Model the fold of this input.
Amino acid sequence: MSGGTGRAVQWHKSTYSSTNGGNCLEAGRGLPGAVPVRDSKLSDSPVLSFPSAGWGKFLATVKDGRFSA
Done:
């Protein structure tokens, strides 16, 4: 995926993610101002794209423990 910018997206997932095919997401790096997210099991699945600032706030909220399981 290049997101129309000509830049390749570098996909990564949490180090907490298991290698046995669990339910995980991958977030992409390399798109200015946006963070693409996809299903880690389906690399050619549809991608959701979030504004970088919003994604950063979401991660901060998760790390703060403000979401209950």
User: Anything to note?
Assistant: The chain has a mean pLDDT of 84. The first helix runs from residue 52 to 63. The chain has one helix and four strands. The first strand starts at residue 10 and ends at 12.
